[in-house]
Every structure is written in structure tokens, then in C-alpha cells.
């Protein structure tokens, strides 16, 4: 446990945007609300009409064009926000962050702009990175247009290999309407700055195609904005490297190539599908509904726009297109305990024998994990009783896109009491029993970044504890099995290797406990050998606490990717807060990990004092995943969740959950017989019927609005 100077504890437990506010009386939390569809459209229209920018539509046309890639809220500066929230100051100017790809110029680049004021923008200004770093054009995130061109280039270059692919897999690229091949792309896209060379894993396009590699991996160079200059630089097939498509095709034609022949996929119950197969040996029923969450007397939380209130808690939230959930102005009992709590980055490092596997180091902010928030299923992803919220993103699109039911809010029975005690009389009876049911309010969204699904939760408990948790599920990132690959994973199916990898998730925690001037210290506990004061000669072990210690740092030599990966090297790092250090990563880190515009190491190498300052705690949690057969068809959530807690530490005079009216107290009226009992409750004696009447429905679309 790491303790802060003021009595709010940050404890690391490593276990292995919403609808807009009312236009009539806007809630103060609305200064943090995501941009509405109207605001997104207004920003796009304003920028598209600026002749000096020369913007073209995102879809269609060439890569060498100027286009608007991303529009999202630019949060107000903290000082302006606090002046408004605490002292009745002016409402902060509402602005948007816009990311523009300038590809139609002699020196292409990526530029970020602040656009405002909203809702009717009339100006923009550059948003520089710390140190004035520029973003080269080759570091930009991938777009739908580039993927379409990548697919076209792959289909064209793979034509000489069509006989090989049809013979070995029964699937192909040419003139394909069914029984098609597809691909997954790997990042980083090269081995050094300036490269944009991507390894593509070729797969059969069936349900769960991530688990159907065919043994072919292709290195495609697509740095040039003109796709006519793209070229295949290298291939890997069934454990062997080839310098060109022609070399591989000729090897097959001569009969010198050992083919990796794949069995015909079954029409039903494919191993990568969710279709039920087999039976549990116990014979207990699974064809009927199981336990459900219910709200017998209605909701016990309040949701107003992007403000969420529950028990003693109050907070504002948003869903950033770039990086996901972000909480602001987190209060308990009316007092702010954190100004910001947000997801920063999700990283996965892989090992393997094939080139794609050994190259894979995913940094999911570069894949817009916040805008990968697809529809949550009622009764599966969230309880039927949950409140579902839509999100609107303008990312690589020519208008805002509505993501239905992208977030949900619900109260969850934890299944364990928050606290309880049975006070025995040790004669077969008791003096009293008392317990308080365990409940938490959950704010949830998901990010489906291609194969993996991350479930992001913030949980609010009535005793002043806030839990941050992420579950990993979805399909494993798998490659074609070869005997040499066994060193780097497990054989999880006949032709499939589950590659070993590490998940790391980075969070920003801007704690403001009794104000923004906080300090940081750690406390250690050790055994002390002292003389027993009541028995001469005996020497008991006594625990001594209060020893101060520093924050440890990883002394290992840094690999080449250290600039991009410095944040996960620290379980906990504490820095002074600066407006020009809003995030520990960026959407450009994935494609330029060698010299990214944001390097977390620079945050902690400036030798600043952190005593009585506005501090930010940067927290990393993660786990090692060695895939196994039980990861088929998907990785399951039990055992694949990590997180941390914010816990009060001598902040209150007592457990604040004593304000809850949900405890039960039982006292015998005739001890020790205990035949007559007094039962005290402050809620109705019976919760009443609790069945959700609505049938299951799902839409699943996300469309431009």
C-alpha cells in the first residue's frame, strides 16, 4: 500500500459520451461532457470550410490528401474548471480537439488543433505537444481508406499464390464472394523511425477468423502515399522465409514446398464459435435462466447528463474516442477526492517464432480503443436493469457516428456483505447479529480492439472505496503452429499456437484530497525485536510501522522501444501535474514507438519536488497470459482481471457506509434462549417480485447520424 501525505490511500491490488446536459439548466458536470452530435458536426463544418486547410472527405480519394481524422472534447484547463466549480467563476470556454492529417503537401504531417468556442466555432489554434514535437505523417493511425487499399494491394500481389492457397486451405483471395481469405495486421509497422511496413497474418474468413491462420505471413511496405508503389518485401510460410511472392510460388510449383494442409471447417459447431457443444456431467439445467440482478424498489442512483450520483458519491464522466473512460470531479460526501481518473493506455507484448508474433507489441490507444465501444448486450454485458447510454464519435468518418448502448450504469450485489458480525455468547446463542449487504455502483464500457475485448469498470462502494478494474476477454492473438513455436506459447488447436503475452494497463489518478496541494510518501512495516515488558527473558516480535521509503524504479537496461513503453515500467509513479502532460501516451505511439511525441519518462526525469504540490499518480496494472486450450473459443474473464483501489485512510471518523439504511440487526429478546428475536431493518421487510419482463433484444449497428 502506498499512502499519500493526506489521509487518502492509493492501494494497488494486482489481482491475477453520454447524453448531453439539459440546455435549460446545464449541470456543472457538463463542462466535461463529450461533444454532442451537433457540436461534432459544427466543428467538422467549420474546418471543412476553411480554405487554408484544404480538407477533403475522410472516405474515398487518395491517401495523399488533407483530411480530418478525429474530433473530441478538449477538456478545460484545471484551473479554469476549479474556478468555475468551486468559486462561481465563469464557465470555461468549450473547445474541441481536432486531429488533421496533412498529406497533400511537400512535407506531410499530423497536426492537432483546438477549435472553439462551441457550439458555434469561429477560430482554431495549434495544439503543440510538450517540447514542440511534430508528428510525422508516417506515424498517423491507420484509416479505413488505408485498410481498403491494403486489402486491394494484398489481393493483387497474392494472385500468383492462389493455387497454393486453394490447395492448402480451400480458400482464396481472387474473385472471392465466399470461402475467402482475410488478414490481421501487426504493429509496430517496422523496426525503426520512418518505416510503415506491416506484417499481415493471412486467415480463413470464418466465424472467429482470428483462430484460423493458414501459415502465411506477408510483410507489405505501404509507407508511400501512392499505393502503386507498395510492395511485398518478405513472406513467411509454414516456418520458412521467402524473399518474394514469385519465389514462394515457384517453390510450390516445383513441388519443393511442404504444404500446411488445413482440414475443411465444419458447417456447424466450429471450434472458434460460441455454439453450445457437449454436456456438463452433473446434468444440472443450463437451458433455463440463471440468477438475475433486480431493483425491487427502483434505482438507487441518479444520472443527470454526464453526472452520476450514488450514496455519498458524485462524479462526471466521458468516453474519449482516443483512450476511453475518463472521470472528473470525483467527490465523496461533497468533498473532492480526485480531479481526474482515466484510462491512458492498454499494451500487449507478444513472443513468438513467426515474424508477426515476434513483432507484435500492441498499444491500443493507437487503435482508438475509446471509439471501439460497441453495443452492450442487456443481460450479458450488463444486467437487464442497467441504464444504457449511447456514445457519439467522429473518428475517421465524414460525420458523427452513433454507438448504441456503448456505456451502462447499474447497481451490483457483490455477493459478499460489506461488513457483518455474529456476536456469539458461546453457550449456543448470541448477543446480536448485524450485517450490511454488499452493493456497488458500476460504470462500464468495453473496447473491442480487433481480437481482444476489454471490459472497463469503475465501481463505487458505500464505504468511500473506489475500484478500478479491467477484464480481458475475446479471442487470443494466435499464429500458425510450428514445432519451433512451442517455446513461445501453447498448442491450443491442431494448427494453432497461442502466443505468450503480457497485458499492461496504465491509468492517470489526479488526486485532490482536501485541495490540490498534496504530498506523497510510502509507509513500510517491519518486525522489531524487543524485550517483553511483562515476562523477563521473552522476546516477542512486534510490528513497527511508519517507516518511510522511496518509490522503486526498474534498473534493467531499456530496449529500443523504451520511449513508447516507459509508462508500464513503473507500478506507481508520482509527478507534479502539468497542463502539457495530459496523457502518458498518444494515438501516435503505436506507429512511432521509437521517438513518439509523448514520452512518459520525461514526466519523471525533471527532478521536481512533489511535496505540497498538485500531484498525479500514474498506475500500471497487468498480468502475464500463457494461452491454453481453455482459451478456445475465447479467453474467459475469471482470472484475467486486474485493477486497483482508492481507499480512505483515516479520512473519515468512521466507516461512512453507516449512513446506509440497508443494514440488518438481530437481537434476542430472551437470552440465552434466543426464542424471541428483534429484527431491525430500515428498508421494506420484503423486496417484492423481481423479474424483468422484457425479452432479449439487440441492434449492434453503429452508423453515421
Automatic annotation (TrEMBL):
GO BP: any one term: amine metabolic process
UniProt keyword list: Copper, Metal-binding, Oxidoreductase, Signal, TPQ
UniProt domain Copper amine oxidase catalytic: residue ranges: 292-532, 569-657
Modified residues (2',4',5'-topaquinone): 452
GO molecular function: copper ion binding; diamine oxidase activity; primary methylamine oxidase activity; quinone binding
Domain Copper amine oxidase N2-terminal span(s) in chain numbering: 39-123
Cofactor: Cu cation
Residues the record marks as active site: 364, 452
Cofactor binding note from Swiss-Prot or TrEMBL: Contains 1 topaquinone per subunit.
Keyword Cytoplasm assigned: no
Signal peptide: 1-19
Listed Pfam families: Cu_amine_oxid (PF01179), Cu_amine_oxidN2 (PF02727), Cu_amine_oxidN3 (PF02728)
Family: Belongs to the copper/topaquinone oxidase family.
Protein name: Amine oxidase
Species of origin: Chloropsis hardwickii
Gene label: Aoc1
